[in-house]
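Hey, sorry to bother you again with one of my protein questions. I've been staring at a protein lately and its backbone has me curious. I owe you a coffee for this, so here goes:
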Amino acid sequence: YGRILPETFLQAFSHGAINVHFSLLPKYRGAAPVNWAIAGGEIKTGVTTMQMDAGLDTGGIFLQKETEIGADENAIELMERLSLLGADLLSETLVMYDELVPQPQTNSEATFAPMMKKEDGLIDWNRAAEEISNRVRGFQPFPTAHTKFQGKKLTIWKSRVEGRGLRVESGEVLEAKGDKFIVGCGQNSVLSVEELQLEGKRRMPIKDFLNGIKVQTREKLE
């Protein structure tokens, strides 16, 4: 649910209202905590049960459960895991409710995860390859990490950091043959694109893409 409930509504319930939030509050308050946690390069996250108040995920914390984020895990996969984790934590919270005292959040430690916008997905090739790869994983299923290739939208679904070159041009195709599609990124870092989707085409692995599309080395992604 993407709206803040008014305090008058929350006060209508004698025991208040409980929310399950998909982060370790006070980190990643807001509408898209899973996406921004992965995009931000976090290696762990979790779920929180909290007493709802009139603020944006600012209520007192009942319980939290932590989990690691897999190195290749995307936001869709992590959301599925957190849904199960959150259901268990909510059940635990309800069983223990009479014994729990909601603990205030430390506002100075808060970070925010605003609702995703389409423009968030546009790849800035001046970023380091690791940052771009994190955004590829984090910006699924929306807005997806995308760029322009030969005048068409190119969505990248899977990638990995290849390493660093001596000197590379951001957004420049360094290699495109077989199952390799290597792109230069910021800080002389290199990204290997493994699965993508050209506008009007199906999602496919790199080998299938390169079998049907001619890509020149030194061609630019924008």
